[in-house]
């Protein structure tokens, strides 16, 4: 099964936070797809967290290196004129940031071209609402927990990142 991961989901593969376990489990099975834009967004998120003191520069560099090593394994949706036109049209129907519109348009594009459902994995509430409104199946930590771990306990994580 192909699943589409936006940058808010992909970053959880490398930075320990709510939803990280879900993302790691999903990435371990099936085909993972994302937009070319995710390369920029994930790097930006990791660098921002390091600047905010969430982890050291050395840890930041290891995370960025691991991410760059993983990119070739992802099915990348390029920012074609069709994807960018779709992203622009999403603004007429939803309140989205530009990057989120590109992520959503990329998943819709992929789903059309595969002619099969492509679940959308994200952790941004506004983006998830728009994805649902566009008819996509969405996956969040809560979705997976409810379907696979009905009695899962909540575990607090520290603000420091742990190894992926």
Short description:
With 164 residues, this protein is α/β, with parallel strands linked by helices. Helices cover 52% and strands 10% of the residues.
Overview of this protein structure:
The chain has a single domain (2-148), classed as Rossmann fold. 52% of the residues lie in helices and 10% in strands. It contains eight helices and five strands, in the order E-H-H-E-H-H-E-H-H-E-H-E-H. It has helices at 7-10, 20-27, 37-51, 57-70, 81-90, 98-114, 125-133, 141-148, and strands at residues 2-5, 31-35, 75-77, 120-121, 138-139. A five-stranded parallel beta sheet has the order 3-2-1-4-5, sandwiched between helices. Helix 3 (37-51) packs antiparallel against helix 4 (57-70). The model is unreliable at 145-164 (pLDDT under 50).
Layout of secondary structure:
Elements: E1 2-5, H1 7-10, H2 20-27, E2 31-35, H3 37-51, H4 57-70, E3 75-77, H5 81-90, H6 98-114, E4 120-121, H7 125-133, E5 138-139, H8 141-148
Parallel strand pairs: 1-2, 1-4, 2-3, 4-5
């Amino acid at each position: 099964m192909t699943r589409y991961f936006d940058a808010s989901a992909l970053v959880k593969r490398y930075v320990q936070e709510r939803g990280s376990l879900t993302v790691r489990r999903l990435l371990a099975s099936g085909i993972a797809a994302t937009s070319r834009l995710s390369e920029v967004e994930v790097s930006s998120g990791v660098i921002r967290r390091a600047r905010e003191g969430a982890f050291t520069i050395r840890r930041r560099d290891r995370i960025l290196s691991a991410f760059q090593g993983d990119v070739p394994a992802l099915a990348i949706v390029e920012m074609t004129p069709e994807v960018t036109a779709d992203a622009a049209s999403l603004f007429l129907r939803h309140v989205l940031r530009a990057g989120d519109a590109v992520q959503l348009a990329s998943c819709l594009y992929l789903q059309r071209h595969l002619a099969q459902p492509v679940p959308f994995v994200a952790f941004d509430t506004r983006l998830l609402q728009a994805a649902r409104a566009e008819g996509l199946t969405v996956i969040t930590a809560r979705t997976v927990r409810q379907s696979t771990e009905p009695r899962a306990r909540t575990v607090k994580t520290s603000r420091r990142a742990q190894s992926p």
